[in-house]
User: Fold these one by one.
Assistant:
Number 1:
Amino acid sequence: MAMSGVMPLVVRVLAKLEPGGAQLSVLHVVRALEAHQIRSRVLVGWATPEGLALASGMGVEVEVYGAGGDQQWQADPRFARWLRPRLAGASVVHAHMFGAWWAASQVVEGGTALVASEHNALAWPGGTAPLELLRTGLRRVDRFYAHGPGARRAVLAAGMPPARIRSGLSPVADLDGLPAAGLPSPRIVFAGRLHPEKGPDVLLEALALLPAAPPALVLGDGPLRRALARQVRVLGLRDRVRLCGWAARPAQSIAGASLLVVPSRDESWSQTAVLGMGLGVPVIGTDVDGLPDTLADGRGIVVPSEDPVALAAAIDDVLAGRRVTDLAGARRYAMQFTPARIAAAYATTYGELEGIPERPWGDERDDEEPAAAAVPVA
C-alpha cells in the first residue's frame, strides 16, 4: 500500500463477534497484516462475551456497537450511522457478513475502497435473500470475496459484476500443530460452533450406529450445547463422546486423530476441514455448498448431508482402512492458507484498491473475467 510516513489503516467491520471460524480468521488476518505495516481498526456490530474474550486473547482491540442484537442479517441504518465517523480516514474498509458490508456501504466516504466478504451462502433466515436489499449494499462494493458458490450465486443474481468477485480467502493457523498430551488414541474429532448448521447432532446419531468406534472429541460451543449433552445421554454415548467446549487451538486435538468429521448442513469453506488436511488427518465432509470443492480430488470423503447412516458407513470405512484420502495432496492444498500467505494476498489487494475512484456498476465489460486470487502457492 502507498506509504507517506503514516501506516495505512484498514477499518475492518464485523457483523458479529463470537467464537467461530469466520471471526477467528479475521483476527488472524489482523495480526498477520502487522508484518506488512498495515494498521487495523476493528468495529463490531454485536459481540458475545466469549467473542470479546477471543479477540482480547489474540491481542486485538475491538469497538462494539451492540444495539439491536445480532447484525449478521440486518440492514440497520442505525449501525450505519454509528459506523460513519469511525470509517473516516480509512485507506480501505473491509466488512464481513451482510449486515456489516451493507451498513458500511451506506456511509463509507467517496474515494475509499470498500471490500466485502461473505462467509456464508447468503441463505436468508426464513427465506431467500431479498435482491433489492443486496443491491443497495453491493452497488458500493469494489471487491467482493465470496467464500463459497452459494454466496457467489447470490451476488451475481443481484447484479454484481463478475469482475469484482473473487474467491474468499481465509487463513488457517497451526497447520504444523502437535497433539496435546493425554488425548485418547485412536480418536474421532469434531470442531466447530455447536449450531444446527454445523451438524454435530448428525455426528452423534452416526456414532450411535457404531458401537465399536473409538472415542470422539466434540470441540466448540454454541446454542446446541445443552441439546447435544442430552442427546449424548439418550443415545448412550457418555462413555465415548466428550463435549470439550471452545478450543482456541483446535489443532492440538485434531493433530494425530484418526479422523476429522465435518457433518455440516451449510458450509461455504471449512477452515476446520483445511486444518485437518494440513495436519495429515483424513477428513469426511458433507455435500453442501463449497465443502465438496474443498475436499475435491481425493483430499477428503464427501457424504450426503443429514444422513447419519451414510456418515456412519464412511467413518467405519476410514477407520477400517477400506477408504483412504490423498493426505499429501490435502496437505499441499492446506498450506496455501497460512495466515502469512493470506495476509500477503490481502495486502496486495488493499494496495491495488487504495485511492481508486469510486466506480458505479457498468464500468466493467460484460465479458471481463476476474483475475485469479493472489494466494502465493509454494
Number 2:
Amino acid sequence: MCGIIGIVGNPGTQVATPVYDGLIVLQHRGQDAAGIVTSDSDNISHRRANGLVRDVFLERHMKKLVGSMGIGHVRYPTAGSNSSAEAQPFYTNTPFGVSLAHNGNLNNTPDIISGLLEYDHRRINTSSDSEALLNLFAAEIQRSVDGRPGGMDALGEDDVFRAVERTHLRVEGSYSVVCLITGWGMVAFRDPHGIRPLFLGKRVVGNFTERLVSSESVVCQSIGFEMDRDVDPGEAVIVRMDGRTISKACHPKVSHTPCVFEHVYFARPDSVIDGISVHKARLRMGESLAKRVAKSFKENEIEAVIPVPDSGRIAALGLSSALGIPYREGFVKNRYIGRTFIMPGQKIRKDSVRKKLNTIDEEFEGKAVLIVDDSIVRGNTSRRIVQMARDAGASRVLFASSSPPIIHPNVYGIDMPAREEYVAYGKTNEEICNSIGADWLIYQKLEDLVESCTSAGADSPADFDCSCFNGIYVTGGVTEEYLSRIGQIRADSEKEQASV
C-alpha cells in the first residue's frame, strides 16, 4: 500500500511545497520511503530516499525541486522492496522523459519484464513492478508516435490515451498511477477494477484551474483544493501544462470492485473513497457488530467498550452507541511510533507494539471490557493488548474485530504475511480466542462488512474486492502457484533475513 499525489499548477508557480504537504497527509499509507519529481517546460528535478517525508525532504532539497508540475509517492515496505533504489517516482528519459508513481501491485511482473526486453528492447534496473509499469507505459507512448516527425509537438492526447489502453491489455493486477511527461503534462489512470483509490481535486487561481490527483480525498481539504470526483475504473485523465484537462475511458470492460480493506484500516477516516465516507463505514461496522454482541450478552454484562487506537476507534464508537455501553479510552498511543501493520519483520513489529501503547489502569480495573480493533492479522498485537488489559486489572477481556477473519493473501498491494502466519488460518473461532488469550471473541460477518460500506455512500460500488477474507480475486489469473510464491517471499523469516 502506498500513497500518490500529482499537481499541475499555474505556469511559473512552484508546486513542490503543496506536493510535500500532500505527502505528509498521506504518510499513513507508507512510512518506508518518499519521493518527489517536479517539472518545468524543459527539465525535471527529483529527490527520493528511504525514510519519512519530513526526513527525506530538507529545505535544501525543496529549493531544488522547481517546476509547476509535480508528482510524489510514499511507500511502505512490500516484499522485496527495501532498497532506496526502489523509492518512487521512477523516471525514464525515453520517450520525452516520463516519471511515474504507482499504488498497487502487478501480478504478472515477470511476464512484463520479459516482454519489455524481447519486444520493446527495454531493460529495467530493479525487480519493482512499478518500474516495469513505467517502462511499459513509456514503450506504448513510443509505439504511438513512432515514425512521426515533430518531437514533443508530435505527442497528442490521443497518443497517450492509446498508450493507456495498450498498457491495460498487458497488465494484470491493481494500479492507480500518476505520471509526468516532462514539459507536456500529467497523466493519471486507474485499473479497470478500481481496486486502489484515486481522487481528483481542483483549485481556481485567477484564470487558471490547478488540478490535483491523490490517493485520498482528504488531501484536497488539507492543502486548499476543492474536492472534484474519483477517477473511474479504467479511466485516464490528462492535465496539460496549460491547464487543459481531458479524460477518457480506456478499457472496454470495467467492473468496479475496490478493496474493502481501505475502509477497514488503511484510509484516513476523513476521506471519501468511491463515494463512501470512511468514517460512516466504520461507524456502521460497529453498529453491525453491536447487533451480534447483544445476542450473547445481557445488559450490564459488559462495563466498557475500549478501542485499540487509532483505526479501531470509530467502530468502537458505533458499537458503544448502539449497545448503550460506556465508551472509554483505555489505551494511550505513542504518536511517534509508526503503524505496526506496515512494518517489515515480526521482531520489529513486536518491539513496536510494546512501545506503541500504554494502559490507563482505572479504565480496566475490576471491569469486564470489550476491546474493539479493526482486524486481527498475525494475532501478536491482539495477544499483547489482551495481556495489557489483564495486567491493568480487567476482570474479563472480550475482543471484537470489525472485519472478518483474514485467511487469504492479499495480492493487490497490501503486503500481508504468508497465510500460515495468519492467526485465523486453519483455526476455529474458539482456537483463535485462545491464541490471543481473550475470554470471548467475535468477528464481523463479511456480508455485514460489505453492507456497512455500501450503505455509507449514496453512489457506492455494487461490490468490493474482499479477497483476503473470501479468497476471490477479482482480476482472475491468481493461481495457487502464484500464491505459494508470494507466501515464501512474505514470510517473516525471509523479511528478517533480508534486513540483516
Number 3:
Amino acid sequence: MNRSKLTRRDFLTTAATGGLAACTLPALAADTATEAPADPAATGSQRLSLAQLRKWEALEYGMFIHFGMSTFVQNELPDGKAPATTYAPDKLDVDQWVSVARDAGMKYAVLTTKHVAGHCLWPSNHTAYTVANSTNQTNVLEKFCEACAKKGVLPGFYYCSWDNHNRFGSKTPSDGGPWGEMNGIPGPDPNLPPYTTSLYQYFQTAQITELLTRFGPIAEVWIDIPGVLGRGYRTFLYQHIAALQPQTLIMMNNGIGNPDAVAYAWPSDLLAIERNVPAGTGHRKWHEIEGKKYYIPGEVCDPIGRDWFWVAGDKPRADEDLLKQYQTCRAGGANFLLDVPPDKHGLIPDETVAALTRLRKNLRI
C-alpha cells in the first residue's frame, strides 16, 4: 500500500478538524446533563424505535470487510484508472469470510460494495467498471448475502461516495484543494471542497437502489464520505434508503475527531467512531440536534492491522491490543466493527483467522 499518498483516514481527520469550517452548520450537541432525555417517557425523534436500535446494539461485535480494486493495486485510494481486469482473485471464497466472522463470535458483517476506485463487486447496470468485466466475474454481494443467510450473520453494505472512476463531473478529494493539499496537490481552487454533481448523485441513487432491491434484507447501510453529497441530497438519500428497507440502520460516516458534525454527515441512525470511543464518559447516545432529541448508537471501526485493505506484511495487532480495544468499546457503550481484509487470493489469511480465534478465546464469547 502506497503510504506516501493521502489516505482516507488523513482525509477524514482533516475534514473533521477544520477542513469543512467554511460550510458547517451548528454542531450536534450531546446531552451533557444526563444519558437519558429529561422526560423519562420520551422516545426520541429518530426514525427507528428505541427497541430497534437497542436490538442492533445487542449485536455488539461485527466484521468490516474491505476488499476490491484497492486490494489488487495496493493503494487505498486509487485513481480509478486501472482496468477492470486488474481485479483478479484466484481462490475467492466468500463463504470463508462469513464463516470466519461467525466463528469469531461476530453477529454481523459489513462489506465494501464500491470504494474509492469506483469498481463494483456486483454487476451493476449503471457502470461497466464491475466484476462483470473483471478477471473473476463472481457476484460477490450475492455470495456474501447467501453465506450470511446460511451462517446466521447479518449482512451490511458499505458504499463510498468518493469515486475516482465514475465521476460525472464531480470533484473528489484526490483532485486537491482542502485535504488534497497535504498530498502535494494544490488543486485549481484550494478553497473549494470536494463535491458531487447532480449526475453523480443520480448514479449513486441508482446503485443504492440496486443494492437494496437485489440481495434481500440488509441490516446496515454504511455511506462513506457523505460530506461530498451535500445536506440536501444526503437527506434525500437517507429517506430513499429508509423507504427501500425500513428496518435497516443507516450510517453516514462522520469521520474522525468530530463525531457531532451535522453538516458533514446528518441525517444518520448511527455515529461512526473510528479508532476508539471518546475518553472519559464514552459514547453518549442521546443528542440534541436542531432542537430535537435523538437516540444515536455508536459504532467503533478499526483495522485488525494497520491498513483497511490487505497489504503484504501487515500483520494483526497484538492480542492484548485487540482485547483492550474490544473491551474499551463495550465499556464505552459502542459496538465494535473490526476490519478483517481478505488477500489477493480472495481469502482471509490464516494468521488473521488465528488472531480472531485467540481474541474470542480471550473474550470468552
Number 4:
Amino acid sequence: MINAIQIALSGLNAASRKVDAAASNIANMTTAGALDPADGPAPYQAVTTAQSAISGNDGEPLGVESRVVPTNRPFVPAYDPGSPFANANGLIGAPDVNLAEEAVNLQIASTTYKANLKTMQVASDMQDALLDMFDRDA
C-alpha cells in the first residue's frame, strides 16, 4: 500500500506541473516579441507537460515523472505598430496560446489531483483496516 501512496504522490506532482504550465501560458499569452530574432527578443514560447512511467529494477511501477517542455508551436504574427518589436509592416510575433486549451488543461489537472488524493485516502483506509484485523487477532 505504500507503493500506491508513492504512485499517487507522483500523480499529484504531475498534476501540479500541468497547472504550472497552464498558468505560465495564460500569464504570458500577450508576451510578444520580434518576428525576426535580429530585431529583438523572441515571443514567449508556450509550454506543456510530458509524462513517462517510472519503474523499479524489477519492473514494478513506481509512479510517473512529469516535466515541462516547450510546445514547439510557431508564434503567430500580430499587428501592433506601436510595439517596440514591430517590423516595418507593424507586425510582431505573438505566442500561440489557446486560452480554451489552457482551461481544459487546468480542469484535467484538477480532476487528476482529486483522483490521486482519493487513491491516497483509500490506500490509507485499507492500511488502517489491515492493522485493525491484526489488533483483533492479538
